[in-house]
Amino acid sequence: MRTRRRKRNTTAQPFIVGTVARNQFRKQLPLLMKAFHKFAVDKTSVHLHLHADPYDPLGGNLVDLRDRLELQGLCSFGSKAGVFDGIPDAEMSALYASMDVFALPTMGEGFGLPILEAMSCGVPVIATDCSAVTELVQGRGELLRVKEWLTVGPYNIEQAIADTDHLVELLNKLYENPELRAEYGRKGREFAETMTWDKCAEQWAQLLDEVAAELPQRSKVSRSAAVPSTPLWQQGPIRIEPFERVVTSEGEGRKRAGRDAPPLMPKMTRNKTLQVVWRSPILDASGYGDEARSFVLPLSRRLQHLRLDDVDWLPQQVPLEKEEHQTLERLRRTRLTPPFLEVVHQMPHLFKRNELAYYRIGRTMFELIGLPDFWVEECNAMNEVWVPSTFCLELFADSGVVRNKLRLMPGGIDTRLFSPGTGHRAQGKGQWSVVSGQVSRRADVPQAQRVGHTDRSLCPRVHP
Q: Which domains does the chain have, with CATH numbers?
């Protein structure tokens, strides 16, 4: 028998639990809805907002589940939240800031950008204690206990199933403790400020410069895996550690560098002869496309010889600001004289050989425990593989990727855009209300920060 809900008090400002995720099995949005149903039983002014397509074919029918849980009026879904759609970053920032708690009972994350975005907006986070999530949230939010692990598929991929009852406990804990919410919001914001895209892009530029400058020694040396002695998230992006001498001949060096590694090239320095080709789904609405734009745009101000090779993943491209569009078009038209250093920014099974590249760096990630064998093979064919979290580094190494090919380079966040100060929790700012099962906005919220605003001039955020 279903537990009857109390009549909702529509005059009070609701306590909003929210999330930003694609409606797919890995994100476990039905689990979040069921936990919220238990959480809301004895409360009169709470609301759950899922910025997700409730009919996504990769997930369940969330509207039907909402009705079966009798959450009509207490649960809403985001507009423009599908794979081929999205809302501008400014609106996404306001959406995060409208939440009292961000909750994500995910089965695994390679990095967890929505979590970092919520932190940057000063929103306390609850997320599953697994994968890269632990690195992000530990000490800055609440980690959701894993109830069991599922092993699925031909490659025995392990997936975490969060504890629904524990999620209810954590929601109640933060609901009843505004001081703790404020503390987590402050700690999350402080952490996000150490992870800006500008800092990450500068680190990438330095590392690319170092790679090119050290190429003459590649025949005699090989790097050890760049694993910091302290947790990554306590110190921000790290520098590549010094080389260790483990190879004595050029032939052996090329063999150790990767399958049929290209010949070594003369020393190069940034802003002179270093040429970089960045291959990625740059205009795609996926997380890979979003991260690629966030790296390439600031890198374009630091590297003189940077070319963009766009890879088509989805048929619909994201709209961009005029200046961003012009920059990316200029990079796509840039001509470079081979050979060049290539960054392949996509999933490992798409790491295809380019005969014109003398050195190839793969940028990738994975969310669950266990890699397909053919992914491992493609990673080992690269000269280096750069991943965004300690979890990914250890996962790739344990799955068979040569450890001294792996580099740790986190992603970042635009803290100027994703910041506290909008939403119903900000004093003196516009306030959010929830009516008829939809998040709506008060008239005093600036138009560019409103959910559902139709201005498509900014790049939308969609998180697969």
A: 15-195+414-461 (3.40.50.2000), 197-408 (3.40.50.11930)
